[in-house]
Amino acid sequence: MINLKRLSYFCQLSKIGSFTKAAHQIGIAQSALSISIKKLEQEVDLKLINRSEKNSLLTAEGQILYTAAQKLLLQAKQVELEIQEIKELTQGTIRLGLSAMMGSYFFPQVLTQFKQDYPGINIVLIDQGTNTLERMLINGELDLALVRAEQEEPQLRYAGIIEEEVVAGININHKYASKSSITLAQFCQQPLILFHQDYFLREAVNNYSHKHKLKLDIKVETNLIELQRSLVKNQVGITTCLAMMLKDDEEITAISFSPKIALKLGLAWKQSHYLSQASKKFIDYLKQAALIT
């Protein structure tokens, strides 16, 4: 592999045309410059300098290398600038995996603030269920994702935890609306509006129905949260959601399950995956905003 410093010295010498002047310009001894050029000739296995001719410093091979080296050194300089920009967080990309609900209710404010502070960093949001996001992390398709953290996956590292209660979202006029809690058995006997398969908010219902061989009356399957709310308000069915979603809703009440169902998510990345400066800064933002602990 060609040493870029020696190549840079060679270009300076080629441009100036004198060992003495080039060494002075570079700031090294003339003997050091001569040794560097000889080592470069050994690296490329070519004679680059006409040491016996005063009128032509470069050989024909030296002229060709000088032209190519100028382009290479410009590219190397560009790479250095881009690396510095990444270190200073003026550019970069974060591939972030979130479920629809987490993206809609937990992250809008912090994402907005982060983009205002670091406009050069692009965030690519991937909306999938937590099980799918975990597989995508392991496959190297994502940089960060909020995934299940009840039992940590050995191939992942976790930076923080979000804990929320999963509740039944029920119209205030429904017969269960006055209850302090309901069982999964009671929930599963009602017309339902559910998330698609592979989402945690669907999992408990699926497990219960499979275990007890119940045929669910699923009216609508959708990950569109506002559509779910509208359907519940219009008494098409009841749904599962996070308690915090319904704290200001006057038409839908949050009823706890008995026993309670907790959602524990961790912000994770692949154990062997390099965590970029942009990703590290984003994690710091989430901690400062108290979204993760």
What is the CATH domain class of the largest domain? Alpha Beta
Q: Specify the structural class.
A: alpha/beta
Given the structure, what is the number of helices? 11
Strand content range: 15-25%
How far is the first residue's CA from the last residue's CA?
47 Å
Summarize model confidence as the mean pLDDT: 89
CATH architecture of the largest domain: 3-Layer(aba) Sandwich
Strand segment count: 9
- The domain count comes to 3
Rg (CA only): 31 Å
Largest sheet: 9 strands, mixed
What's this, in brief?
By secondary structure, the protein is α/β, with parallel strands linked by helices. It has helices at 4-16, 19-26, 30-44, 60-87, 100-105, 108-117, 130-138, 184-188, 200-211, 225-233, 277-288, and strands at 92-98, 121-127, 144-148, 156-171, 181-182, 192-194, 218-221, 238-242, 252-270.
Features:
293 residues; single chain; 3 domains; D-Maltodextrin-Binding Protein, domain 2; 9 strands; 9-stranded mixed beta sheet; Arc Repressor Mutant, subunit A
Structure explained in plain terms:
The protein is α/β, with parallel strands linked by helices. The protein folds into three domains: 4-87, Orthogonal Bundle (Arc Repressor Mutant, subunit A); 92-162 and 266-288, 3-Layer(aba) Sandwich (D-Maltodextrin-Binding Protein, domain 2), CATH 3.40.190; 164-263, D-Maltodextrin-Binding Protein, domain 2 (3-Layer(aba) Sandwich), CATH 3.40.190. It is built from eleven helices and nine strands. Strands 1, 2, 3, 4, 5, 6, 7, 8 and 9 form a nine-stranded mixed β-sheet that branches. Helix 1 crosses helix 4 (60-87). The protein is rod-shaped, with a radius of gyration of 31 Å. The mean pLDDT is 89.
